[in-house]
């Protein structure tokens, strides 16, 4: 016996699909699938971005290590040069040291003049 279009033994208001109408349930399913796919694509994008950031960090660390070694070698070179200049200044070669200083000033003046003309 069918009462009001419902199957026998089905409680009133419950049509066998737990209170959802077929169209409403499938709309929720479609929205969940759409949101899940959107979330999946965002997670994939964030993952690839974090991998790229990791590669960039490794490259920058390598560059910094190279710069550090270059600065160390330059520091050693300048230290040796300053030691030689101190040796020159202590000796009787003050005339040579004056020529060296005048030459340095001349070079700096020429560089300044070239830069200023640009």
From TrEMBL:
Where does the T-SNARE coiled-coil homology domain start and stop, copy by copy?
A: 26-88
Gene Ontology cellular-component terms for this entry are: endoplasmic reticulum membrane; Golgi apparatus; SNARE complex
Annotated coiled-coil positions are none
User: Any keyword Transmembrane helix?
Assistant: yes
Q: Which GO terms describe its molecular function?
A: SNAP receptor activity
The highest taxon in the source lineage is Eukaryota
Write out the transmembrane intervals.
Answer: 96-115
| Key words of the record | Coiled coil, Endoplasmic reticulum, ER-Golgi transport, Golgi apparatus, Membrane, Phosphoprotein, Protein transport, Transmembrane, Transmembrane helix, Transport
Which membrane topology describes this protein? Answer: Single-pass type IV membrane protein; Single-pass membrane protein
Check the record and name the InterPro entries matching this protein.
BET1_SNARE (IPR039899), T_SNARE_dom (IPR000727)
PROSITE patterns hit by this protein: T_SNARE
Tell me, which GO biological process terms does this entry list? Answer: endoplasmic reticulum to Golgi vesicle-mediated transport; protein transport; vesicle fusion with Golgi apparatus
Q: What is its main location?
A: membrane
Compartment(s): Endomembrane system; Endoplasmic reticulum membrane; Golgi apparatus, cis-Golgi network membrane
Tell me, in a sentence or two, what this protein's role is: Required for vesicular transport from the ER to the Golgi complex. Functions as a SNARE involved in the docking process of ER-derived vesicles with the cis-Golgi membrane.
UniProt lists the family membership as follows: Belongs to the BET1 family.
Quaternary organization: Interacts with SNARE complex members GOSR2, SEC22B and STX5. Interacts with LMAN1/ERGIC53. Interacts with STX17.
This protein is called: BET1 homolog
Q: Which organism is it from?
A: Equus caballus (Horse)
